[in-house]
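Both lines are quoted verbatim for reference:

——
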Amino acid sequence: MYIEKNFFDNLFHTVMDDKNRTKDNLKARMDLQEYCRRRELELRQENNRMVKPKASYSFKMDDKRKICDWVRNLRIPDGYASNLSNCVGMKEGKLMYMKSHDCHIFMESLLPIAFSALPERIWKPITEISLFFKDLCSNTLREENLVLMESNIHLMISKLAKKIPCGFFNVMEHLPIHLVREARLGGSVQCRWMYPFESFYPPKATKAVVESMCSFYHAPWRSWSEVPIHIRDRIFVEFRMKCAWSRDLEAEKSPEFKKKSEQGRAAHLSNKGGSVHTGGSISIAAHQRRLENAKGRLVTHDEVFEETHMKKLKDGTKPTWIEPRAETTHDNFK
């Protein structure tokens, strides 16, 4: 979980050229002359000061503000992620205060779209890393796919290393190489990560539990710590069987909560021109691999697009497109 977040932070802030968090700093550029020999990126001396040339893998301020504006106006399903517009800093052209789950959503679903303005030789390795994490975090893991991912992750990291200076790579960029083996040994990551436990505020939950238990006993005990252990166990069993989360239920029934919920739902359901598809939560790369296994050959982008944008009947036929825009996009692309 935190490996994905740290990898995303390093990659995102380097491409967005955040001067406080980028890995492409002056020290990294000083190493280029000795190790990488990329003359177009080496520091230059102008007017008695060192100047860092703009790299092709980082955005200018206008591009950064376009990305921030896109994130600010983004509409996502209710409960899918937090309100990312609160993380946007338009003046600075960067995203701030993103939680680990926000980074998880951005890394796997939004990063290829946000960085689509990059040159293809840089955008493609970043997209491959994004799809790698998405496949790794899927609900269903197939042994043959894990074997392929384990052999490809080395190549993905190497492609990225050819485009971004060596200062970007530390132990956190090396750890994804071992994640596939961990998934093969430990199973689906949903059973092991900490996102469910970070979705509530522990002190508030603990206070609600203690106050609910206090209703089960009176004097001579002044606090829960003074209750004998055998009575604690009996009270807790009764609490677990009968006690309802009345405080949370009352909060959800309040007018303020209902108003906020309806506003969020209306915003998420508003039409912003999103793409409709039939691919579900499976990534495009996974659909492509399944098609190739079924057909026994390499498939084209047109075939993958048809697989994920045409209605499927029970007999397996695909007579119509999911919507007219999908057919128009297919014809224009073809």
About this structure: The chain has 16 helices and four strands. The mean pLDDT is 83.
